[in-house]
Design brief:
The complex is a heterotrimer of chains A (198), B (749) and C (100).
Chain A: H1 2-31, H2 35-55, H3 59-84, H4 97-127, H5 143-151, H6 155-176
Helix pairs in contact in A: 1-2, 2-3
Chain B: H1 9-24, H2 30-57, E1 64-67, E2 74-76, E3 85-87, E4 90-93, H3 95-118, H4 125-144, H5 148-166, H6 173-204, H7 209-212, H8 215-222, E5 224-226, E6 229-230, H9 231-246, H10 255-258, H11 264-273, H12 278-285, H13 287-292, H14 294-317, H15 321-341, H16 345-372, H17 390-404, H18 410-423, H19 437-464, H20 472-477, H21 483-498, H22 514-523, H23 533-558, H24 564-572, H25 574-581, H26 586-634, H27 641-660, E7 670-675, E8 678-683, E9 696-700, E10 708-710, E11 714-718, E12 723-733, E13 738-748
Antiparallel strand pairs in B: 1-4, 2-3, 5-6, 7-8, 8-11, 9-10, 9-12, 12-13
Helix pairs in contact in B: 1-2, 1-4, 2-3, 2-4, 3-4, 3-11, 3-16, 3-21, 4-5, 5-6, 5-11, 6-9, 9-12, 9-14, 11-16, 14-15, 14-19, 15-16, 15-18, 15-19, 16-17, 16-18, 16-21, 16-22, 17-19, 17-21, 18-19, 18-23, 19-23
Chain C: H1 4-24, H2 28-53, H3 57-87
Helix pairs in contact in C: 1-2, 2-3
Classes of the chains: A mainly alpha (198), B alpha+beta (749), C mainly alpha (100).
Chain lengths: 198, 749, 100
């Protein structure tokens, strides 16, 4: 399919650009001292991911990604960042660095192992013809398609998720609200807590 | 003779009395406690007399037997080449144990009766009578036991009661110490007893007296053990060690003088009349064993003679009246061992009986005197009491005459029988011993008899004659004891005066020695080497003269108080007096040679092993290690979520690293080796080593033959068809139910 | 068509970056963001496999994951705010109450 071959190249370019945006955004997110910058990098990551989702013919999920993550969740983050408004002097939590280094080493091992396994598995699956390499039929991954799955096969998880969201909303309100009988925060100047052991 | 006579009741009755008095005695009135104690012993005495009467009516070899319960008391199966062990809790009453039972119950009853008055004031009245009853029961088990273990139960039981009663007034340190001393010294002897018992069992596979006495056992005991000693020799000597402990012979006599710390009736019952004679009884009971090697008998007789003399010399110098009597007891026990050691068993046992009466009487008399003098013990602070205490005085005189061996009192006959036995002791079978051994023992015994007469009358004159040497308050309060105390004194005095006629020597009339006729035919072989009547008369005359001389000497020196002559003699031999007065420093020697080293060792064990090793290193050390580990591990609990998560990652990685080997490989790669129509399929890529596990392989050759299923990865196949065939390998890991497969095409020519 | 392994590798790296962020950052907000990264990595994996298998059920699952992530973010941020109210810090080094 020559069209597919052309599409292939275009897709490849888009894919690598998206990859760069996603991983770069992610790295910026975890390295920036400024929380707002980190949040914005995260938004970039989400957009990159959304683009990737479209590459995977998941248009609906791409839309959701932008709406929910970049829209709702990040708004929440930025809002909280503004409420707290505290930049870090020392962004890295170096306490227990030996243990954490071990943990990261373990992570590296897991990534390596998982990567090897995934590659092997997908190679096998490809070989066995388990993968669809051709373009899906139109409408696949659209609202109708996903909605069909959600309201038939996954009706119960869908309803459960709605309940979960309700609980989360109430819980968030309860956890974050100001305790009535506590003295007002203004009368108690926020003293920087002592560093070190309690 | 088989009857259903309830023999077991004889020890059980006092034991029941002990149980009542010890458990609920506090809730019973004093009268009730005394009634229970005396009644139980009296009933045992009545049963004892009844049983003895049954024996008396039967032939000499008649016995009564009984068992506490049916079946084995101790049972052990055969092992290590030693036969199986069946011991029954059996009792045996023959003429020998009948004598002992009568002495124990009769004298025991009198002493119980005496105690009701003597201990009247004591606040632990019920405990005292509980122990006393317990002792009586244990002593009866000792003499009635039909095997060594049963006897040993009584043996230990009386030792326990002795300990409890010596330390009866344990709130005084010295009394508690005396109790401990008695217990520990007895342990040494008991150890010998036990070893002897084990040896006997190893040779004969039985411990019952009747089985041991059989010819077969005697032969087994004669069996050479090592060097030239037979088991009988070694076991006999070990048992004799037990006897020296219980019967206070050299070198284990040291506990008995200290045992006078207990109440005086206890001294009379346990440490004069009954318990201390257990060793004599045991040797008489096992005489067949000791006779196997006469060497042992000679040892017994020699130790007895030396003890008799040794203790008598100490008795001369002692001042507390109970100490005099204690050393006298040791000395008299020595006489009994002379008797049993020279095969004059009947004489030894006869002296045991007469001694039980006059020595119990002496102790009770001493108790009566001390009762009157508010606990005064020192004879040099007494005097002239004949006016105040006539009954005590006259009975005491009878006992003194009996123990001194004056005709016709009991001691004369029994001591004479022993000395006669020693004189005629035949050492012909014993080349190790000089032929004059018997005569030497006789003379040693005679010297001891002389001293006995002297120190007993020294005590008698110092107590009852002359002027009172104490303060006048004590004198004013002195009084005769109540009837409950004087009645036993009188009964015992009658016994001491008259019992001797039961064992009159052959010299008087050949049929008059009733005691010998009662005991010897049934229990002992007839004595060898009987002396002529003339020799016996001569020996009796010598003994009487010697005793008279002792009494006369005491009369001259002490009739009017301590005469200047006595003081002069003492001053003339200051060193000798000092040595004897201090009891040859035996206690001090034991203290420095045995007690102190042991205490040092115990101290080292305490400080080094217990305190340092066990307490500090093991107990506190392990706690310290746990504490240390806890302190170290505490740092892992940082409260830092991120570190926790790092740990989770580490754990995940570890689990996956381990289980990665366990997951079935994806795919089932295989090699095919082909030779014409023959193929060899070898599946590979399977983890080996620790991860190797039983995989199930299924080979489908694609030629219509059923798949080959097996657990090894290699298979051979021969194709009967030609052309391209699809060869498939399926691998199943049954644990995870993971299936994988691979296939390829082979071309069959 | 980009091979599915590529997506998987991107997802793996994204997840690893998220983990590193969770492990090493002191700021609770950044840690929450890192968690979002990890959730997105999971989502990407789901979608890649779904595309490869031509199965739109995977997208339904991814949708549910997004919903859960939203709930998680809401509650997580509420907790951060609550902690900040009480302890005047969002510094995880100082939030070691579990130790005591």
């Amino acid at each position: 399919m020559p069209a597919a071959a052309e599409g292939h190249l275009g897709q490849t370019i888009v894919f690598w650009v998206c990859t760069a945006v996603v991983l770069g955004g992610a790295l910026l997110t975890i390295t920036r001292r400024n929380t707002v910058v980190a949040a914005m990098s995260l938004v970039a990551t989400f957009f990159g991911l959304a683009a990737m989702f479209t590459l995977l013919s998941a248009q609906f999920l791409a839309a959701i990604q932008v709406l929910v993550y970049a829209g709702a969740i990040m708004t929440l983050f930025v809002f909280v960042v503004m409420v707290l408004n505290r930049d870090e002097r020392e962004p890295w939590a170096l306490r227990g660095i030996v243990g954490k280094a071990l943990g990261i080493g373990a992570l590296g091992y897991l990534t390596l192992l998982g990567g090897t396994f995934l590659l092997g598995a997908s190679a096998l699956l490809t070989k066995q013809g388990a993968y669809h390499t051709e373009a899906p039929k139109p409408g696949w991954g659209g609202v109708a398609d996903v909605g069909n799955a959600l309201f038939t096969t996954y009706l119960f998880p869908f309803e459960a998720i709605s309940l979960l969201l309700l609980v989360a909303v109430i819980g968030a309100v309860v956890v974050a609200r100001t305790v009535k009988h506590a003295p007002p925060a203004s009368q108690e100047p926020p003293t920087p807590p002592a560093h070190g052991e309690h | 003779m088989e009857t259903d006579f309830p023999l077991y009741l004889i020890p059980l009755l006092p034991l029941a009395g002990a149980a009542i008095n010890l458990l609920v005695g506090k809730r019973i009135s004093r009268g009730g406690v005394a009634a229970i104690a005396c009644t139980s012993v009296a009933m045992a005495a009545v049963l004892g007399w009844k049983a003895a009467w049954l024996l008396f009516q039967s032939e000499p070899s008649a016995i009564l037997t009984a068992r506490f319960f049916d079946g084995d008391w101790i049972h052990a199966t055969e092992s290590h080449g030693i036969g199986s062990l069946h011991i029954q809790a059996g009792l045996l009453l023959d003429r020998l144990s009948a004598v002992m039972v009568l002495v124990i119950t009769t004298v025991g009853f009198l002493i119980h009766l005496y105690s009701t008055a003597y201990m009247e004031e004591d606040k632990n009245f019920n405990r005292y009578f509980g122990y006393l009853n317990l002792f009586t029961g244990a002593m009866l088990i000792l003499v009635l036991g039909d095997s060594l273990p049963v006897t040993f139960v009584g043996w230990e039981g009386v030792g326990l009661c002795s300990y409890l009663l010596i330390g009866f007034w344990f709130d005084k340190e010295a009394n508690a110490y005396a109790g401990r001393k008695a217990f520990i010294v007895n342990r040494v002897g008991d150890f010998g007893f036990l070893l002897g018992m084990f040896l006997i069992f190893s040779a004969t596979s039985t411990l019952s007296y009747r089985d041991l006495a059989s010819q077969q056992s005697v032969v087994a005991l004669h069996h050479v053990w090592f060097a030239k000693a037979s088991i009988a020799t070694v076991a006999g000597l070990l048992l004799f060690v037990g006897a020296t402990g219980k019967s206070a012979q050299l070198p284990l006599y040291v506990w008995l003088p200290d045992a006078m710390a207990g109440p005086t009736p206890v001294s009379a019952l346990i440490h004069a009349a009954t318990m201390v004679t257990a060793g004599v009884y045991m040797i008489a009971r096992l005489h067949f064993l000791f006779e196997i090697d006469p060497f042992v008998l000679a040892v017994i007789a020699s130790v007895g003679a030396l003890t008799a003399l040794f203790a008598a010399t100490i008795g001369i110098t002692q001042k507390p009246i109970k100490k005099i009597l204690a050393y006298s007891t040791v000395s008299q026990l020595g006489f009994m061992f002379i008797g049993v050691g020279t095969k004059a068993y009947d004489a030894g046992v006869f002296h045991l009986v007469t001694h039980a009466f006059f020595k119990a009487g002496l102790f009770l008399g001493a108790g009566s005197i001390m009762h009157a003098l508010s606990g005064e013990e020192d004879v040099t602070k007494m005097g002239g009491l004949r006016a105040k205490m006539p009954i005590t005085r006259w009975t005491f005189l009878v006992y003194c005459l009996a123990i001194a061996g004056i005709f016709p009192f009991a001691g004369f006959f029994s001591k004479d029988a022993i000395l006669a036995g020693a004189w005629s002791f035949d050492v012909a079978e014993m080349p190790e011993w000089p032929h004059w051994l018997g005569h030497a023992i006789y003379f040693v015994g005679l010297s001891a008899a002389f001293m006995t007469a002297f120190y007993m009358f020294r005590a008698y004159f110092l107590v009852f004659h002359g002027e009172f040497r104490g303060d006048h308050h004590t004198w004013d309060h002195a009084h005769e004891s109540p009837p409950a105390m004087t009645l036993p004194l009188v009964v015992l005095a009658i016994g001491s005066a008259a019992l001797g006629f039961l064992g009159m020597p052959e010299a008087f009339h050949k049929d008059w020695n009733l005691f010998e006729q009662w005991l010897v035919p049934a229990n002992f072989a007839p004595m060898v080497g009987e002396e002529h009547a003339s020799t016996e008369w001569a020996l009796m005359a010598v003994a009487t003269v010697v005793a008279g001389a002792g009494i006369f000497l005491a009369y001259r020196l002490y009739y009017r108080g301590i005469s200047p002559t006595a003081v002069a003699i003492k001053d003339a031999l200051p060193r000798l007096y000092k040595v004897v007065f201090n009891k040859y420093w035996v206690d001090e020697i034991y203290d420095s040679s045995v007690v102190r080293p042991l205490r040092s060792l115990a101290f080292v064990l305490w400080k080094g092993v217990d305190a340092l090793f066990i307490d500090l290193i093991l107990v506190r050390g392990s706690a310290f290690v746990v504490d240390l580990v806890g302190r170290g591990v505490r740092y892992l609990q940082s409260g830092d979520v991120q570190r926790y998560m790092a740990a989770v990652l580490l754990g995940t990685a570890a689990i996956i690293a381990v289980s990665a080997n366990w997951v079935a490989c994806t795919g089932a790669p295989f090699d095919v080796e082909q030779h014409g129509a023959d193929v060899t399929v070898r599946a590979h890529g399977m983890p080996s080593g620790p991860a190797a596990r039983p995989l199930e392989f299924s080979f489908d050759f694609g030629d219509g033959t059923p798949p080959v299923k097996q657990s090894t990865p290699t298979v051979r196949h021969h194709y009967d068809v030609h052309g391209r065939r699809r060869l498939t390998v399926n691998v199943l890991d049954p644990r995870w139910d993971i299936r994988s497969s691979d296939s390829r095409t082979v071309v069959i020519p | 068509m980009i091979p599915v392994d590529h997506y998987l590798l991107v997802a793996g790296l994204l997840f690893a970056i998220g983990v590193v962020g969770v492990l090493l950052r002191r700021n609770a907000l950044i840690v929450l963001m890192s968690i979002e990264l990890m959730l997105n990595a999971a989502n990407l994996t789901l979608l890649a496999f779904g595309r490869a298998r031509g199965d739109s059920n995977f997208q339904a699952l991814a949708f549910l994951v997004v919903a859960v992530a939203a709930a998680e973010a809401a509650v997580g941020l509420a907790i951060v705010v609550g902690i900040f109210r009480n302890r005047h810090t969002t510094n995880l080094d100082e939030l070691t109450l579990m130790k005591h």
